[in-house]
Amino acid sequence: MPPRVVLLCGSPRPKGNTRQILEECAKVLEREHVEGEIVSLAGKRIESCTACYRCNKEKRCHLEDDFEPIMNKVKEAQGFIVASPVYFGTARGDVMNLLQRLGMVSRSGGGWMAGKVGGPIAVARRGGHTLTLQEMTMFFMICDLIVPGSTYWNMVIGRNPGEALNDKEGMDTVRHFAGNVARLILKLGQ
Questions:
Q1: Domain residue ranges in the chain
Q2: What is the secondary structure of the chain as a DSSP string?
Q3: d(C-alpha 98, C-alpha 94), whole Å
Q4: Percent of the chain residues topping a pLDDT of 90
Q5: Is 24 left (phi over 0), alpha (psi -120 to 50) or beta?
Q6: Which residues are CB-neighbours of 36 under 8 A, at least 6 positions away?
Q7: Which architecture characterizes domain 4-188 according to CATH?
């Protein structure tokens, strides 16, 4: 069975730019013989972490929403790419809710995120990309994931569905990044 990367689509739009970008990344992964599974937050409810620390004892999050099935997919994967549209200069709230809860449950469960390969992608009409990348990259760093580089930062410009695919530099950057994720997973033998 080939290694697998979960590509988290943080957009509420099931066919928007963020999804289209991840579909392109999945194609790159497949060419490198790594399975890519897109998991969308569209229509899902992800509550904010309450810092109750019950996960320390239970090794799972006690909040009842759509988190656990996503967590299980990420836990079993060798890679994790998160793409978020930029809302008011930062990642969408439910994206950060999910990342913060993944981090808490992973840390309480022996640090199972450590060593996975991946990183963030920011999608915006005009601005806020760099802060969004920084915000999401902090999750990858504190959870001990391995984040490969690319030819530029993983940011794509587009507003209406399909516009992001016309951002040649942005798309070349994220495709190169996805290839680096796949090649690194294969080199690590995960």
A1: 4-188
A2: ---EEEEEE--S-TTSHHHHHHHHHHHHHHHTT-EEEEEE-TT---PPP----HHHHHSS----SSHHHHHHHHHH-SEEEEEEEEETTEE-HHHHHHHHHHHHHHHHTT-TTTT-EEEEEEEESSS-HHHHHHHHHHHHHHTT-B----SS-SEEE-SSTTSGGG-HHHHHHHHHHHHHHHHHHHHHT-
A3: 6
A4: 95
A5: alpha
A6: 4, 5, 7, 22, 25, 26, 27, 29, 30, 178
A7: 3-Layer(aba) Sandwich (3.40)
Closest CA to 145 of 104, 116, 184: 116
Give dist(CA 107, CA 44) in Å, integer.
24
Task: List, for residues 46-67, the tens digit of each pLDDT value.
Answer: 999 999 999 999 888 999 999 9
Task: Give the list of residues 6+ apart from residue 25 with CB closer than 8 angstroms, or none.
Answer: 7, 36, 81, 83, 121, 174, 175, 177, 178
- Rounded to whole angstroms, how far apart are CA atoms 49 and 167? 35
Tokens of 80: 């994790």
Residue 78 and residue 185 in contact, taking contact as beta carbons nearer than 8 Å: yes
113 pLDDT exceeds 90? yes
